Amino acid sequence: MKIATFNINGIKARLPRLLEWLEETQPDVACLQEIKSQDDGFPASEFEKIGYQALWHGQKSFNGVAVLAKQGLTMEERQRGLPGDESDDQARYLEVEVDGVVIANLYLPNGNPHPGPKFDYKLAWMERLRARMAALWAQEKPTIVLGDFNVIPQDKDVWSPPAMADDALMQPESRDAYARLLGDGWTDAIDTLNPRGGVWTFWDYQRGAWQRDHGFRIDHCLLSPELADRLQAAGVDKHARGREKASDHAPVWVEIA
């Protein structure tokens, strides 16, 4: 099974690029973030035309997550929205089960400007995520938690640590919260297969970042032990970032035996 994550940065604006990537790479499951679409505006019929079913959790103009799975696979929704704070109405989490694999798709808060209430919200969200991941762990099912984590885990995951030193993505608190997830026993698939780092998943639209390869890694795939033992390959479809009207993220994927 090939499972991918892609922060699409506006599903309507990037729909031609998204359909193009899906048809070229044929993931079994594709988790999308930052769809920026209300539920009734989600273009599900466009995905049906190329053989994908969809579940989505939308929000007007901001956030929003969706999961696409090939037709013929069994997909059921398990959880809409991250538990732990009933006042949080941001569309950032959608959990499904596809053919026996639990898939948690997330768009973690950015946290800028730091310090401030947005950074506090980010850290609180990460605490809630850890609690949810502990609950998933306890179920002992093959599980993957993936998406845009908005965390640069280590200095090896960014083109220039000094350039990002003041950003919420690289603050010690953000990194520590991410490290605690790994400490709980989850496997970072890309890092496991690329221990020296130097793998980017995001290049800003500003300052010629793409042309100069000034990127960093914030899109992650975390595997439970039941899936980590079955990891065959993982990678980044970097070419997708270089196309016209592309997202500022590239798709990230894992292949599971």
From TrEMBL:
<dbReference type="InterPro" id="IPR005135">
    <property type="entry name" value="Endo/exonuclease/phosphatase"/>
</dbReference>
<dbReference type="Pfam" id="PF03372">
    <property type="entry name" value="Exo_endo_phos"/>
</dbReference>
<feature type="domain" description="Endonuclease/exonuclease/phosphatase">
    <location>
        <begin position="4"/>
        <end position="249"/>
    </location>
</feature>
<dbReference type="InterPro" id="IPR004808">
    <property type="entry name" value="AP_endonuc_1"/>
</dbReference>
<keyword id="KW-0479">Metal-binding</keyword>
<keyword id="KW-0378">Hydrolase</keyword>
<dbReference type="GO" id="GO:0008311">
    <property type="term" value="F:double-stranded DNA 3'-5' DNA exonuclease activity"/>
</dbReference>
<comment type="similarity">
    <text>Belongs to the DNA repair enzymes AP/ExoA family.</text>
</comment>
<protein>
    <submittedName>
        <fullName>Exodeoxyribonuclease III</fullName>
        <ecNumber>3.1.11.2</ecNumber>
    </submittedName>
</protein>
<keyword id="KW-0460">Magnesium</keyword>
<dbReference type="InterPro" id="IPR037493">
    <property type="entry name" value="ExoIII-like"/>
</dbReference>
<dbReference type="InterPro" id="IPR036691">
    <property type="entry name" value="Endo/exonu/phosph_ase_sf"/>
</dbReference>
